[in-house]
Amino acid sequence: MRKKAIVLLSGGLDSTTVMAIAKHEGFDLFGMSFFYGQRHFHELNAAKKIAEVFKAKKHIIINIDLDKIGGSALTADIKVPKSRSLNSISKGIPVTYVPARNTIFLSHALAWAEVMKSVDIFIGVNAIDYSGYPDCRPEFIKAFERMANLATKAGVEGKNRLKINTPLIKMTKAQIIKKGIELGVDYSLTHSCYDPGPDGSACGLCDSCFLRKKGFEDAGLIDPAI
């Protein structure tokens, strides 16, 4: 029987690469995306296409009203930072951080993993070329994995040990892109911008756009989504 992977799929560059890695490792893919009131909801259209391209066994979109909580430039009436330097991006936690987002996402993935009898959850967190989010750090992932094995029926019964797979966590953005190209990822399908136009076009100036652009430049490649 083939292994099943629950893949958190935003529609962005990192999560798409993670899905490619899971497929390459022989997993059947089960994609999970979220509409959480994010201003960059266009990413969900990308996620749908990507799930189809990778022939995911199932792709579901969960609705969570995080915009009712707010507290982030992605879910509230707060301006998305633009034209920041790499030095500025690497310092502090930006207003684009969505409170507890990865904890919430991973909790949903954990529930689905139990139902699907999967022991593998894949998430595209990265602790090198990222915007300083606390829920992208290795210590957070390790803590969540410990909690997951305490909080689930499978974990308590000792039948299976759930694993949070983070294949990108120690990679630079350039390395991530090169890995994706190696695995045949079509990055023209992906969407990364935090503050896209009404038609979904990237602003080119937010932190996410900046890190994406730098990643392709460092990899010596041209971003096909431009």
Overview of this structure, please?
- By secondary structure, the chain is α/β, with parallel strands linked by helices.
- It has one domain (4-218): HUPs (Rossmann fold).
- It has eight helices and five strands; from the N terminus they run βαβαβααβααβαα.
- The chain has helices at 13-24, 43-53, 86-89, 101-116, 138-151, 153-157, 173-182, 207-218, and strands at 4-8, 28-35, 58-63, 120-122, 163-165.
- A five-stranded parallel sheet has the order 3-2-1-4-5, with helices on both faces.
- Helix 1 links the parallel strand 1 and strand 2 (28-35).
- Helix 1 crosses helix 7.
- The longest helix is centred in the middle third of the chain and has 16 residues, at 101-116.
- It is globular and about 50 Å long.
- The relative contact order is 0.18.
Would you spell out the secondary-structure blueprint of this structure?
Layout: E1 4-8, H1 13-24, E2 28-35, H2 43-53, E3 58-63, H3 86-89, H4 101-116, E4 120-122, H5 138-151, H6 153-157, E5 163-165, H7 173-182, H8 207-218
Parallel strand pairs: 1-2, 1-4, 2-3, 4-5
